[in-house]
Amino acid sequence: MSEISTVDTAERLSRKRARMLPVLALIYISQQATFFTDDALEGRAVDHVKIGAWLVLSLVMLLALATNGFWLQSAEVRALINDENTKANRAGAMTVGFIFAMLGGMALYVVNQFETVTARAAIHVILSLGLGAALVRFGALERRAHRDG
Question: How many CB atoms lie within 10 A of CB 128?
Answer without folding.
Answer: 21
